[in-house]
């Protein structure tokens, strides 16, 4: 935890910020300064401090007294800023949000606050005293730099390229923040910034201890954040918030907090609140009082179903992240959050005050926006009120109708989608669950010159795809679940009628995916004079998944294609595209499609399924050596075939053979130097032993019925070995010292040898730190780092296992049946047993819940 940093930096900007907040208060009326002379003194003192700060910040590195003065000044300025921030907040809160009975006049409101404040005299006096000492240090006044020529940022987001200088200082700060040394934890009354490491069990208690004595803390945030972790230790947010009234930044990321106290509404200075990853289920209505809040992060608050009803009061909110929540609807009047720059998604409600039209005023939205439940839009006029074409800072737009509603709506959704037309510079567009039969003309217009990604998903009533071929920058296209599309024809390649000259269709497309098109039968070829004019000149990946009625035709020539994946297209019998630089080919299913010429010399990954496909590949390998092949997966072939030349391709690194019982495994004596991963599953019935694999890292063998022994002395790199359901396997000998995990599942002959500690088997496995052994349906034995665990999945017999488990530390029972033979078995386990855990009914459990048993001394 880091609690304190050297002070003094950037105080000039700090003073300017205080004066900027103070100015509207002082300018309310001419008599204000006369009535509240303390604020006049504060303004005068700030103006006196400003001119010498640049000189002081330079001298602090060589003059300890100046550094001490800057630290004192910083502390006094923090307190003054807290005061002014509170005054300006109370003055700025709209009249409608103030308590009844309080004067609507800004100056009167501030007057009453000042009269009731006993600290103001002390705060101003302290600042005056510190500033008066500036003359003791002979500080020079510096001319104020004219900042008017600097570009004003259009968003509150930091652009990294605009940050420069003081790199050494930045490095020191970063090291300090992530340091784990005790001497970093220095907290006193001047501490303003606290951080904690959620992965360090000692960090959070130290942070809580620091909060006890540091009531002026402004930031409490997390470092080394684990986005998907959860801190084991709970905290009392009520107590914490009671102590830290001046917080500007608060992060409870991943803490076990399911509710926030109402007192959070009293943190009027708060600008940034992060509750991401917490199990919070509700937010107090008092959060609507956080007038200054600019950032609210609720990402992955999966139990959160509702936001405070008066969210519209957070008029300074700029960033609202609600991705990963379970919100059912949006609060009313979100249109009042006119400064909002980021909104992860918006749920269209059924009422006007939380309907789609509320987005109309949010013209400053940046980044991406998802709009859900568009089926609640009543008419195209409501969609028009959203003014989507005016949101020029959006890069990505996701439009979603609920998938549970497939019937066509009474509202013409084509008209609704027409009015949701985004601005022309949009880069990504996704339309999901759209229920009309056709798309409006703007979808696919070439005027969307920056669009790089388009997804059309679950548009089940559409019978024709929009014309997309003339989108000039489109790189990724995903089309899924168009139930009524039977043919993709020439219109798919064309664009709108605004340009008579048609460019090469899909000239920038790199990734194309069709999936779950249940009635798609034909992909019509595009007519062109030569290959140079053919569509998809830059296509690198083509995926066609689960299109069971597709017969053809596929594009004939794809010069840039590197990956081709076809699965679940049983009727596809045409030739696959010519692809001279193809690197990865996967054909999975019963389809008969094949390539005119398999580019084996270029392929790196080959995955084929089915008898005809496997035979075709093996036949091709007899003519062309696959010199670049790294991954080979063959499955579902009953033919009696063998690898060409009785050897594996020399470049092969990963081989998987699944359900190919008659494939002959190559047993030539040559060593396969490149192979690192081998899986044989229900295949190679003739296999009785394995050849040498000196580079093998992972070996998985399942249901090899005739495998009798396994000797892997030459596989000195092997780390993981999985053996399952090999009924004739009796011996595993000379396993390498490199092995760290061994799985033996339902190998009865081998299991018997292990149970009796067969001298031919036991020396080969006793050195392995992690062993998982299921010899019957009743026992799974685990060695984990030399501390043996036994896990009962379920007990079917009272069999006595004569093993001297002298290192047994933990016994786990998962829903065991009550059985009298368990008691002597547990007693036999040895003196090292430290803990027994049970889940479910068993003879030593007191109830149905998980119980802990500790062995008596």
From TrEMBL:
One of its GO terms (molecular function) is nucleotide binding. Residues 356-481 form the R13L1/DRL21-like LRR repeat region domain. GO terms for biological process: defense response. Residues 14-92 form the Disease resistance N-terminal domain. Pfam families: LRR_R13L1-DRL21, Rx_N. Keywords: Nucleotide-binding, Plant defense, Repeat. PANTHER family: DISEASE RESISTANCE RPP13-LIKE PROTEIN 1 (PTHR47186:SF42), LEUCINE-RICH REPEAT-CONTAINING PROTEIN 57 (PTHR47186). This is Uncharacterized protein.
